[in-house]
Amino acid sequence: MNTPSAPRQSRTPAWTARFILALLLASIGQAFVPRAGAAQDVYFRLQLKHGGQYLDAENCGSTLTLHPGSEWEEGACQLWRFVAAGDGWYRLQLKHGGQYLDAKNCTNEMSLNPGSDWEQGACQLWRLVPNGGGYYRLQLKHGGQYLDSVNCTRAVSLNPGSEWEQGACQLWRLVSG
Questions:
Q1: Structural domain contains residue 74
Q2: Position 125 in a domain
Q3: Which of 73, 91, 151, 158 has its CA 20 to 30 A from that of 164?
Q4: How many domains does the chain have?
């Protein structure tokens, strides 16, 4: 007589999971990086899962916050592009002014900066960490923390991890600009 067996759990080897993730990030990155000779760059709005607001350079200045929408300069204060920096890392460049999303001197203070060589640019290097459902965490190379809406408010900072509303304060999706 056959007895029911315990359900099998999938055990994907760690190297396979890393390889699949690397392929996924490489294919995503290719879509974000402007191709040589392209007539137009590709920009995205970064939308927070909690509340649906977008990462915004307030009035196109260096203060970063969340905002439901902006028509200032046709949305240029909320439009970002991914500029490949190698090994799966990217700089996030704001359309208005061309500055980059920056952890000021590698602290939790978020700002814009035209360029940084602090720790070989690690304060401006980000990668997308898939989280399912089309959402990602944006991880800073220096320290490995994630871009975070502090307690799901308009304040933007870094946080090593958040369970607030099942992580919704750190989950971002890309919305075409």
A1: yes
A2: yes
A3: 91
A4: 1
